[in-house]
Design a protein that fits this description.
8-stranded antiparallel beta barrel, mainly beta
């Protein structure tokens, strides 16, 4: 028969989780999905800008399906009221948004679609870039939340 004895060389047990006032363990703060904080008014560095852009949920689709509309100015085939991009948050990466950008390059009769990604830097800044570099002029584009638009 074998018997064991306690050893002073064994690692110490981890300390117990702190208890809240109600006796439950304190929960870690929830992870913020920056890619779901894109709604609002933004200033974008499209060529000739900055231009104001309004990002809303697409009223024709359910869930988080973003539609960005130019609210002032213009260049190439963009003018106030033009849809500049449509996108959705990436389900696996909390600061990534993917979609298609309308390319308004001067010299074309109408805008054409190019694939793009948006990387959320924080709730007030993001960068839009093209999947295929140089397929449209003026990218990457930097967006800054307008002072009149608070993050959700």
């Amino acid at each position: 028969m074998l018997s064991g004895c306690a050893s002073n060389n064994s690692p110490a047990a981890p300390p117990p989780l702190p208890l809240s006032a109600y006796g439950l363990p304190v929960q870690p703060p929830p992870v913020v999905n920056l890619n779901q904080q894109i709604l609002g008014q933004w200033s974008a560095t499209y060529p000739g800008g900055p231009f104001r852009v309004d990002i809303e949920n697409d009223p024709l689709l359910s869930g988080n399906n973003y539609i960005a509309t130019l609210t002032d100015g213009g260049y190439g085939t963009f003018h106030a009221g033009s849809i500049v991009f449509k996108a959705t948050p990436d389900q696996a990466v909390p600061n990534l948004v993917v979609g298609s950008q309308r390319c308004p390059d001067p010299g074309y009769i109408s805008a054409f679609e190019v694939s793009m990604t948006i990387t959320m830097i924080d709730a007030n800044n993001f960068t839009e870039d093209l999947v295929h570099k140089n397929s449209c002029q003026g990218f990457p584009v930097k967006f800054t939340r307008s002072a009149s638009s608070s993050s959700p």
